[in-house]
Write a structure and sequence with these properties.
By secondary structure, the protein is an all-alpha fold. 71% of the residues lie in helices and 0% in strands. It has one domain. The longest helix is centred in the middle third of the chain and has 34 residues.
Length: 306
């Protein structure tokens, strides 16, 4: 029964993930006084892209075509490691959180290699920026996960989520809150959201993620867009699973989880509405701040458990 519930939650994530960026866009439109695009617009975009053909430059190799597939495969496995709605992840083992962080790095590397394979100076510029910011984002993610491990005494994401729903916040609210705050900053960076990047910009000199996928089209671009939505869903689900929002009721907890995911989309939309995009020289400062929060959570972890 548990395995069936885990599989259902995983499939629900696969289906609902494209709606999360839609929530972000709707919040941004509402805050700006605009009507905005429909919440489910990404579903229509994916369907349209899948019906189109792909055009490949003569300078590209198999690396360019393999990039979107490898990125999607990595995030699909990462999603399978994340618990949701009080249900354990379909794949759970001791140390799976290290694999989770590593799969995000694999997805980034696949996108960067595909961008470099085009031989375009613009896409090479975006890959260079992505690599530079990853130097700060990945350690912050790992230290935040280490803080969660120290507080929960679990090397598994499912175990950490189970501990978070069984009174952990009663004695370790401070370190868990700091770790979640660090994870949220990393979430913005990993998903190329404001204030790190603007997914809606088309000015080459300011783009990071979008400039790396300029030459992709048709089904390849659909895979990239879908993988990006899944990555946002997986990162948000990790944070929501650590919040004290469970009743123990197998019928109510999934509803609470979905409400939490919608709340995560609203929060990202509010951040993008009230904050401007940072200068690129300031982005490392923000990620170092996330690292500081994670280190503080790690130091406080032992005290919080006491």
């Amino acid at each position: 029964m548990t395995l069936l519930a885990s599989a259902f939650v995983y499939l629900a994530g696969l289906v609902l993930a494209p709606g999360l960026p839609g929530i972000v866009n709707r919040v941004k439109a509402a805050m700006a006084g605009r009507k905005g695009v429909p919440t489910l617009q990404l579903y229509a975009d994916l369907a349209k892209l899948l019906r189109k053909g792909a055009v490949y430059s003569r300078t590209t190799t198999w690396v360019f075509r393999f990039g979107p597939v490898a990125g999607l495969a990595a995030v699909l496995v990462a999603l399978a490691l994340v618990p949701a709605g009080g249900v354990a992840a379909p794949v759970s083992f001791s140390g799976d959180l290290i694999l989770f962080a590593g799969l995000f790095a694999v997805m980034r590397m696949a996108t960067m290699l595909a961008a470099l394979d085009t031989g375009s100076s613009f896409e090479g510029m975006g890959a260079s920026r992505e690599a530079a910011f990853a130097v700060f984002a990945e350690p912050a993610l790992l230290v935040a996960l280490a803080a969660i491990v120290r507080v929960t005494d679990s090397l598994s994401l499912s175990g950490a989520a189970a501990a978070a729903g069984s009174g952990l916040w009663g004695h370790a609210a401070a370190p868990v809150s700091l770790a979640c705050a660090a994870l949220f900053v990393v979430l913005l960076a990993e998903n190329a959201r404001v204030p790190v990047d603007d997914p809606n910009t088309h000015l080459e000199l300011t783009m990071i993620h979008e400039v790396m996928v300029l030459d992709h089209g048709g089904p390849d671009f659909a895979l990239i867009q879908y993988a990006s939505a899944l990555k946002l869903w997986a990162g948000s689900a990790l944070i929501v699973s650590l919040l004290p929002c469970r009743t123990g009721n197998p019928w109510i907890d999934p509803v609470i989880f979905l409400a939490g995911m919608a709340g995560a989309g609203v929060l990202v939309g509010l951040v993008e509405s009230f904050l401007a995009r940072l200068k690129m020289s300031r982005v490392p400062h923000m990620l170092v701040g996330a690292m500081a929060l994670a280190i503080l959570a790690l130091v406080m972890g032992r005290t919080g458990r006491g």
